[in-house]
Amino acid sequence: MKNYAILFVCFLWTILTINAQQVDFEEYDLDNGMHVILHQDNNAPVVTVSTYYHVGSKDENPERTGFAHFFEHLLFEGTKNIPKGEWDKILTSNGGTGNATTNQDRTYYYEVFPSNQLALGLWMESERLRHPIIGQVGVDTQNEVVKEEKRMRVDNAPYGQWVSQVFKNLFKEHPYKWSVIGSMEHLDAATLEEFQAFNKKYYMPNNCTLVVAGDINIKEAKILIQNYFGGIPRGEEFERINIKEEPITETIEATFEDPNIQIPAIFSVYRTPSSKERDAYVLNMISSVLTSGKSSRLYKKLVDEKKKALEVAAFNYSLEDYGAYIVLALPLGDISLDDLLAEMDEEILKIQTELISERDYQKLQNKFENQFVNSNSSVQGIASSLSDYYVINGDTNLINTEIEIYRSITREEIREVAKKYLNPNQRLELKYLPKSKEIASNEK
């Protein structure tokens, strides 16, 4: 009788968890091609308005890198009806916050307002789309802003260049090979007409997904959206980037010297499939086995037991076209990078040749269930997820069903995917080193 009671409680918890995580939404297209996603949640009097443009650093001219990130800044400069410097003042004086981010695949803008300011949020984003001012003054201003950001976050930050070095060496043809922040020389050389052409091509309603999430009335929100966005003309269609990389068949060896660090790092990086592929989900689970938490294999072995590493991490950096599976470690004391690499390879080989135990498999499933329960805990997070799932994955309802993919992954599948991708002849080995005193002295 006791066992039946326990089973019933577990069953009830599963049902409650699924219901609690269900994100209801409605989606449709405006006549100009803008995709709209609405999520109503009246539990708190806040609303998120976000615009998600399907343009990232991969869409740039190889001689004009950094444009997508530059526009993340430039489109805060002002519009026909929002004077220069007034954007943030309007935002904060009405109780709002906002920001924007850019990556290789997309650019994302959002505002979070008290729900009685929904119309204001929609008006501001429609202004960004309809009436941006792409002028020389704004370009010159943001050029300096971006240069300072690069100095602070990349050039002078410890380990600030590891991402760019990984992608530079992992990709030979695909535009993932250049950094999101791009080249300052390219931005300096660009003409105003080139910036205006980039805006006209990519910042159009038919390349934009609008998400409104939070304390809204669906019917009223639709009327406002039509009023603010419906009359914006559709942009011209364009071809998406479709560049294929040849498989890696021999180990790529690379080194980079960073003047901002004292402790080196070893990166073992494998090119992996798009975030849309099932194998990407399996690789996420492999990452959890290797380095998620202090009981994970690599952390327990290299940090706790053998004390060879200060830190170790493994994760699948998934993107729309490809991914990068990254395993890295920082040595403790005089431990060599080659020694760390051999230790990391030993644990990967175990995953390739041995099934993880039933107990570890259940712990893994519990961990992903818990992540699912805790995901989308804010309205802003839900808005971001809805955008990503629609644009990058082509299935908005993954916000509700993605956990089913993880539940269906088997121990055998974990072993086979590790065999398929995580092999020494299919990877980049990047030694990320402190800059030698001799080179630094010569440069002075």
From TrEMBL:
GO terms for biological process: proteolysis. Coiled coil: none annotated. Residues 36-176 form the Peptidase M16 N-terminal domain. Keywords: Hydrolase, Metalloprotease, Protease, Signal, Zinc. It comes from the Bacteria. Residues 190-367 form the Peptidase M16 C-terminal domain. InterPro entries: Metalloenz_LuxS/M16, Pept_M16_N, Peptidase_M16, Peptidase_M16_C. It holds the Pfam family Peptidase_M16_C. One of its GO terms (molecular function) is metal ion binding. SUPFAM superfamilies: LuxS/MPP-like metallohydrolase. Residues 1-20 form the signal peptide. Belongs to the peptidase M16 family. This is Peptidase M16. The lineage of its organism: Bacteria, Pseudomonadati, Bacteroidota, Flavobacteriia, Flavobacteriales.
